[in-house]
């Protein structure tokens, strides 16, 4: 595969791989402007942690809608119960994902600290 023929904003040559049967990468191909626009519109809307607060807020709103529907007689109690159980499962999944990400981040930080201290793989205790 060839290298993209595009020119970056700083004037340098793009070093990305060109798309198949094209001289440009997806970021420089003129026919891909709509794809780039859609991807750019997502910028800042996804955090490194997946925006758990927004996800939880959405689940709270959904729970409130179910409660309102139940109280107004729009939903049967058994249907509302199952829907709330599903929301609770989603909440637990968000919590588990947050814990997993935090654990990965801590492991990466610990590894970089151990490497900086020159104790990579060293199993002796500190203390």
Outline of the structure:
This protein is mainly α and 127 residues long. It folds into 2 domains: 1-43, no CATH class; 52-117. The protein contains 3 helices and no strands.
Number of domains: 2
| Average residue pLDDT | 83
Radius of gyration over C-alpha positions, nearest whole angstrom = 24 Å
Q: How large is the count of helical segments?
A: 3
| Portion in helices | 55-70%
Tertiary shape: flat
- Ends distance: 55 Å
Query: Which oligomerization state do the chains in this entry correspond to?
Result: single chain
How do the helices and strands follow one another from N- to C-terminus? HHH
Can you tell me about this structure?
With 127 residues, the protein is mainly α. It has 2 domains: 43 residues, no CATH class; 66 residues. The chain is built from 3 helices and no strands. Helix 2 runs antiparallel to helix 3. The chain is flat and about 65 Å long.
């Amino acid at each position: 595969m060839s290298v993209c023929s595009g020119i970056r904003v700083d004037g340098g040559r793009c070093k990305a791989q060109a798309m198949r049967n094209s001289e440009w990468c997806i970021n420089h191909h003129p026919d891909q402007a709509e794809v780039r626009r859609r991807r750019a519109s997502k910028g800042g809307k996804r955090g490194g942690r997946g925006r758990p607060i927004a996800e939880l807020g959405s689940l709270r709103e959904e729970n409130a809608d179910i409660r309102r529907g139940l109280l107004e007689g729009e939903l049967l109690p058994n249907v509302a119960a199952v829907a709330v159980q599903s929301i609770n499962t989603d909440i637990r999944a968000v919590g588990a994902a947050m814990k997993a990400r935090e654990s990965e981040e801590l492991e990466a930080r610990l590894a970089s600290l151990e490497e900086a201290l020159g104790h990579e793989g060293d199993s002796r205790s500190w203390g």
